[in-house]
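notes to self, project folder thing:

trying the whole complex as one job this time. last attempt i did each chain seperately and stitching them together was a nightmare. two parts in total, labels are on each line so i dont mix them up again. if this works i'll redo the older ones the same way
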Amino acid sequence: MRALRCLVRKEFLQLRRDTALLRVVFVLPIFQLLVLSYALNSDLRNVRVGTLDEDRTALSRLVLDAFPASDVFVAGPAARDAAELEALLQAGACDLAVRVPAGFERDVAAGRTPSVGIDVDGTNSSLAGRGAGYAGAIVMREAERFAAANAGPAASVPRVATVVRFLYNPELESRLFMVPGVIVMLVTIISALATGMAVVREKELGTLDQVLVTPLTPLQYVVGKTLPFGLIALVDLALATLFARVWFHVPMLGSPWVLLLGVLAYLLVTLGLGLLASAASNTQQQAMFTVWFFLVFAIMLSGFFFPVDNMPEWARWLTRVNPMRYFMDIVRGVLLRGAGLADLAGELLTLLGMGVAAFGGAVVAFRREGVRG
Amino acid sequence: MNRILAVARKEFLHILRDRRSLAVAVLMPLVMVLLYGAVIDMELRDLRVGVLDLDGGDRSRELLRATTSSGFIVEAERLHGRDEIEAGFRQGRIQAALVVPRGYGEDLARGEARVQVLVDGADASTAATVANYLQAVVALVNRDLLRDAGLAAPFGARTRVWFNPELVSARFVVPGLVALVLMMICALLTSIAITREKEAGTLEQILTTPVTPAQVIVGKVLPYVALGALDCAMVLMAGKWVFGVPMAGSWWLLAAYCLLFIVIALALGLLISARSPSLRVAMMAALMVTMLPTMILSGFVFPIASMPGPLQVVCRLLPATHFLVVLRGIMLKGQSWFPLQTAALVVMAAVLLTLAIRSFRLRLE
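result (full assembly):
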């Protein structure tokens, strides 16, 4: 126990002197939280609409004016003919083009049900699909309004109205959803990357051999080495959650203790994985690459910005072995939905199992290292 | 020239000997294309919706049948009380709930009935889409009601998607990955390679040889240019063969712009290594300056137009933003004329190169 205390003390002294690393570890997360939370925005805004009015009637203007009036679209260039409209799309001067064909109003009056053309630039598929959806909804709404205004009191058609309510996030701000994701990412990067590189650095400098000749057991070494980074990650989590609350008004509906339980289980996993990566590497560059390789896929398959439900079956299966996905569910659940221990029991147990496996694996790996050295 | 080649050969051997880094540098782009191409999908397919029927009449059953058979909703779960809705959200079993209130049938007979759509807003990236789908389903029901009454909508909309009709996400991801890979290999690896020699003190040994500093730098970056070009070609080929990403424009033009972007990335890598005191700082800085912005602020996945104003300015200052417009233009639209983007890229290349050469000379002599 005393040996462990000494090692932890040494680690903290070393950390305190490494001001560059400390800056990276404490200042960068807040900076990233700010930039990423503003940038990772899946709301559609300012989609530029090019127009082509071949009809030039009151009705065609009514339809076209409905676009910039919505909060998704802004008015873009107006084309004079079909060729110009195509050129606008080609040059990327607008994201979406609306075209009212000649004889539109006349066809409507004659009951021929003409169509408004919506041309979408499909090269930006994150925008195209939903943009087309919104545009279609706008045309449909205008059609309904027009029909209602012209039908008069005689027509009584039964109608189903929908009342939509968004629970937990009434204004549907994607920021509420993204900020917890950024927090998860920060905790992961700091704990896994910093641990991974710290041990290899000792290897590179040759001080690992010195440690190995001391009476420290592999378990003590592994615990002592990771404890400071675990603490840093905890402090970062607290800082980031606080910042998210003050700056972005992200609530904390659930219990902080459940969150703490979740992060402890998760840190076991990330610290263990960082150690495993460093046990398998000889240089800091290799360690960084190895950790980073896994991080890229862990982040992608965590449901951070790409919904897990949209993934093909095999990718969904992959997310089930991804610890980050479970922690993401825990953080979002606790912060936004007020999920309790009972709701998250499955996730917590899975993380705990993964953590014990990863950490145990790291201890075994270092025991072998000790034998070799 | 011989000297440059000698330095390049030495660096090349370094790369070959570090098998793991090489494997990551070669495999990562490939795995990324395959995964990103399959995983990035902003359209929702399988909706998990809970259905709560408080009316239980013929009309409400009709509505629910129309809802579940529309093809939009894959898994519908029947709920038995309002408290089950929130429990379902908290456990992540359902994304939305459709509630048919008591008296729905009578209300519909009288003219207007209401149904409630409750959506889990915590998952904001899908919530809006889920709500749209459910509203679209109800709109279909309304259309049928209109048709039954002998009325039709006065006009409709016909949507056509250009350049990427099926909205295959790979077509839009592959150009972004090209930018990401070039940044990763040419900026990140170069900065690491140079900082490592600086830290190990071997750079000075090389400088005592008759090789000039410029020759050292050119020799050192050459292998990374080759590696970057190789990765880039792999990403493009994988995109073409696995996901059918088209090539509407000219390969030569594409190669020319890639080369311009490689110059920018290299200059950035040199600048980082010249300014970093240690390997660790160089790695962190390279990650921060190259990878994250290229992934997040370049319009790769997240539309720049939706970001707040000041951030949009930052986006426009990134080389990757302009490079992406060019890549997508060439590959998907067959464009060949990009006056604005070319000017921006050339200016950035010139500025970064000047800065890199200046700060480097100071350190080496």
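what i see at first glance: Chain B touches chain A through 111 residues (CB under 8 Å).
need to look closer tmrw
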